[in-house]
Amino acid sequence: MKNRVYVGKLGKAVGLKGHLRLFIDSDFPEQFKKGAIFSTNKKLTLKVEEYIPSRELIKFENYDDLETSKKLTNQELYVSQEDSKNNCNLEKNEYFWFDIIDCKIIEDEKVLGYVKDIHRYPLDDYLEVVTETKLVDELKLPKTFLIPYKRDTYILSVDIDKKIIETKDCYAILENS
Questions:
Q1: Would you state the pLDDT for residue 93?
Q2: Where are the domains of the chain?
Q3: For the whole model, what pTM was predicted?
Q4: Origin, by domain of life (predicted)?
């Protein structure tokens, strides 16, 4: 499955009917519903038969007993970006990480770099930005820097279609990194 998004990991088998412990690593637990399709890091395709959020248990079709479900232990679950967009509801000014990555960071019509990754820390998410080559070569600025993802404080606008994030006060962060 191309353009996959990591959403969780399967733990040990629980009970005799094929349930597994589910460790969700996604902001959208609603995508683990009956009939949802996931792929694994071992190239398996799994269809959800039952999900019990209160007990963090999941069961997949054709894994109906302890022995067969044990084979899935420690496998990672992935979903396609398209399925993520269809199954997850975003609020206003919320975006999928995979849409934010590769966006250009622009401040006062000057390109500072592009988003390489996003890091989640306890208080805020941070955009890891690869600095524009020209700024690194000519001004000897750092090759990468972090921008706190705070709307209105540092992030003025996000245009996913154009892959542009307009910022303010981020050049100062870059200079002081």
A1: 86
A2: 4-89, 98-175
A3: 0.81
A4: Bacteria
